[in-house]
Amino acid sequence: MCIRDRYKEEAKKLHNSGKYEDAIQLYLQGMKHLDTLKGLPKEVKSKYQAVTNSNIAVCYKQLQDSQSVIVYSTNVIEAEGVEQEVLVKTLMIRAYAYESLDKLSEARDDWKQVKEIQWNNREASAALARIKEAFKRDKSQKVGEVLRSINSQLEEYKTTGTDKFKAGDYKEAADWFSIGIKLFTNKCDVENIQYTPKELLVVICQLYTNRAICFHSMNNYKRAVEDAEFVIEKLDSKNAKAYYRRGLAFSKLNERKRAVEDFEKALSFEPNNKLVKSAMEEIRESSSEDAKEVEIKAPTESTKDSIKRKGITEEQISKATEIAAKSLGKDYLKKPKTAYSFENIWRSYKNNYAELAKFLEENAEPDYLGSLFKDNEIPGELYLSIIKTLKYSFKTYVMIFTVERRKRCVTSICRCCCVLRTHT
User: Fold this and answer.
1) Residues 254, 27: Cα–Cα separation, whole Å
2) Rounded to whole angstroms, how far apart are CA atoms 223 and 177?
3) How would residue 291 be classed by pLDDT, with cut points 50, 70 and 90?
4) Tens digits of per-residue pLDDT, 110-138?
5) Cα gap 199→207, rounded to integer Å
6) Band of the pLDDT at 282, cuts 50, 70, 90?
7) For residue 222, what are the contacts with CB-CB under 8 A and spacing of at least 6?
8) Using CA atoms, how far apart are residues 95 and 92, in angstroms rounded to an integer?
9) In 3D, which of 88, 87, 85 has the Cα closest to residue 124?
10) What's the confidence (pLDDT) of residue 338?
11) HEC states along 317-338?
12) DSSP label at 349?
């Protein structure tokens, strides 16, 4: 055995017996002896130095001397031609040393290097997850300290803004909420918002959702959407009030589908929220596409000329336009495809029983009505309105229609009653 290997073996024995300082001295002596050797191949010398420096780093790790660990580990990592196994081992040793000194960025970089060499290294994966959480805690603590220093101011601006809003001064209320928001954004950049402690996040969310309702009250629905959306996307993805406020703005922008989606989301977080339920009911009562009145426009002059060339008179054109407007003013001939559409169309007649009677007769087949309300409970108000319409229909049709017409009407009424009785 050559002298340099003898140094290494003796040092290893000392290390195993817990005599780390003595082991370090022997490792260092072995490297000094290496410098005296002439004609030794460069790669042999480099390999010996890398292994020895790595072993010294291990000894210092046992002595809990993180600074020295970093020094000797770096000698290995920066050397050329280091074997992969030695490199990975040394990177891990240095990463732990950085962590012990709370140098998390440096530790994270070393663990990432380990993952690049050994993608399935579980120790590195666990360390990176641990460091990520440590970063989050550190950021949260720093952001928390900043926000706690201004929390009383934010509360004051929120209270003042709320008082102005209750007094009907929406512009000034929005200005006060904006002052609070500006103070917050100046102290906490967007990247650090995610680290805001939960107990301090409440007032921040309130500033945004309160300003959103101010914009809504001033008919600035797009700005209301932006503020509510900021809360959902940046601050609190489960904030029911933000979904509610955005839903209100969407409903005013005629984006009914998105409004309903937001109200449903809000109710998923607060199932008993009466305000959201009321807003949802208003959406249901508003005119749907199935119940929209059809706008009948008079034909243009060019259209009239084209029609006249076909032998149709001006009087006939006017009569046709009048009939079309009367027939299509309410879309009662179009059968609804869902219980929701049926209810919306029904409500659009606003208890005009003559119109409702016509609509009902067209849709009174029991199989058809049964399929519509198969999985839906008929609301009490709708049920009562249908009964009143049936009563009106019976009286009117008995007086003015032929025997055959009366028979058809009574049959339809009876069948419809059967369906209603089944589904209520």
Assistant:
1) 79
2) 14
3) very low
4) 999 999 999 999 999 999 999 998 888 88
5) 14
6) confident
7) 249, 253
8) 5
9) 88
10) 64
11) HHHHHHHHHHHHCCCCCCCCCC
12) T
